[in-house]
Amino acid sequence: MHKSFHWVILLGVQFALASCSDNAGNSSESSTSLSGNFQEGNDYLLFERVRMIDKVGFTQPAEAYSLLLPKGWTHEGAVSWNNPGSSCEGTFSWMKARSADGKYKLETYPDLIYIWNSNPQLMQFYQTNGFSSPNCALKEPLDAEQYVKQVFAPQELGNPEIVRVDENPLVVEQMQQSNEKSMSELRQYGAGDMQFRQTAINAQVRWPDGTNGFIVLGTNVLETNVPNTYNGTSDKMYTTQITKRIVFRYPENDKEQAEHQFSVIMSSIRTNPSWSDAVNKFWKDARQRKQVAHIGRIRLMDEQTRAMGEAAIRKGNDRLQAMNSEMRSWEAHQNSQDRMHTNFIKTIREVENYQDATGKVELTSGYNHAWSRSDGSSFIMSNNPNFDPSAVFQDQQWKEMKKVD
User: Fold this and answer.
1) Number of other residues whose CB lies within 10 A of the CB of residue 358
2) How far apart are CA 140 and CA 154, in angstroms?
3) Which DSSP symbol is given to 6?
4) What is the layout of strands, in order, in the sheet containing 359-364?
């Protein structure tokens, strides 16, 4: 049962990658010499793409994902790996970003895995052995709203007032599709009597200091009936994954500006497919190896396991190098996990498609004009009809983007 417990945790971690992140180099800045009396933040907003780097899992630093942040924001983050065979194995990530004046803050939290079992002996075993990472804990299953109200807000966010909670059916639908794929893999391992329950919410909160915030997150609960061959009954095992935990904090009277910024940031998240493919391959290989142990060939996670991981990582490094020769075209498209970020913010503000020389880009609605330098890294949004960045910045690489379907 101990080995089964490990691969169920592993599967939970795979439901949604954050993905993942660490300090990354800032994109190149355009000229800052201005022409005219236009004020950044009022007349326009300049967004620059930042890169989040995994410095742990590969033989060389690998970009995990990227996103747009308003110019001048600082950011930090990390990607961590818990080894196969540990009590909380998987790949986790976090990121913090803030505006230069500290009034706006964005934080993405690592996924959490909660384990619970109806068997008292197994619960005692879990309690005695504990977990090797704060990303895993013992807790009864709960849905997204329960988690926000009972755990996240009071324990990690300073207990803000919860103003509003809305279910997000778009994200739930996408999570359900992902869970169906996970069910297919589990059945290959012989699992039978199991079911998923998925929930996702958007919440609005207010802190005592007057600042407000948006919270988005989802929960996946996997309930598995495990036959007890000793007494002929069955036990229920619950694996709950808390995923896509993101908080955006903003000044009390700046809700409209906050909606714009949060929407641009969320819809701009792009996971590096070369990185995610290598990560998923590594953990799928680990799960398959655990299945071999589960059916009777019990072996320790030793040199052969490490060699397996290194081979997957080498393949990932080869793909990372190939990516650079493809002009980073992957940032012009969203994979299914990135799409989930966009679906989260659609309940706050719709997004619109814009076209530049590199392809189609999703940006928040609410702005009448958008410009890019066709480098995939710099975008300007404005409602001022007289603002033209090619003249303001004296940089002819700025071109206005066209709205497309």
Assistant:
1) 17
2) 17
3) H
4) 359-364, 351-356, 402-404
DSSP string, 16-57: S--------PBPPPPP----SS--BTTTBEEEEEEEEEE-SS
C-alpha span between 343 and 370 (Å, rounded): 21
Stated pTM of the model: 0.75
Average pLDDT, consecutive stretches of 10 residues, N- to C-terminus, the chain (405 residues): 36 36 39 62 89 89 93 96 85 96 97 94 87 90 98 98 95 87 75 86 96 97 83 87 96 92 90 88 79 35 49 55 45 56 61 82 80 88 91 91 87
DSSP code per residue over 143-158 = -HHHHIIIIIHHHHS-
Instruction: Give CA 289 to chain center in angstroms.
Output: 27
CA-nearest of 364, 182, 363, 333 to 259 is 364
Q: Dihedral, CA atoms, 350, 50, 53, 311, nearest 10 degrees?
A: 70
Q: How crowded is residue 357: how many other Cβ atoms within 10 Å of its Cβ?
A: 11
